[in-house]
Amino acid sequence: LVYTSTHDYGRVLVMIGVHSREPIVELLRSRVFFDWFDAVGVDDIPAVFAGEIIDRFVVAPASSQSAPGAPGVVMAAIAPVDDVPILTARVGDAIDRFTAAGIRKTWVFQAFDDGHEVLILQEFSDEDAARAWIDHPDAAAQWMDGAGVGAYPPLFVGRFYDMMRIES
Fold this sequence. Notes:
This protein is of the alpha+beta class. The chain has helices spanning about 20-30, 30-40, 85-95, 95-100, 125-135; strands at about 1-5, 10-15, 50-60, 75-80, 105-110, 115-125, 155-160. The protein is globular, with a radius of gyration of 16 Å.
């Protein structure tokens, strides 16, 4: 999945899903990422997060009769947290408040190489809701404080751009 930033020209979020962690570990050890970055003209080496989904919260499941559509606006944060199970419990407890803030889905990913590093991806119906959330997040969204600090990239807000599926 490729998302393009709504405000930072040229900034993208690329998410690649695989069935097993082994290909990712081997890929990260190779020059493939760097060659790909060079091929597409990346000037600065971007943040690379490799992890797995540990929890997902879908507040409004799509009706089985509705046609699938493009996702709304996403907000992504890569950040350190003290305790991942406590984080997911707090998100679960706050899901009604998240829904009231316009969040449709929240995915929590945990890094393979650091058990205290997470990627939180949230989907909103529109950019206004995402920006309002960034300006006034819920107390349960403490991970947002760690985004953009040190080696962590700033919060990403973007729209769906493209998807590619490679069948085995």
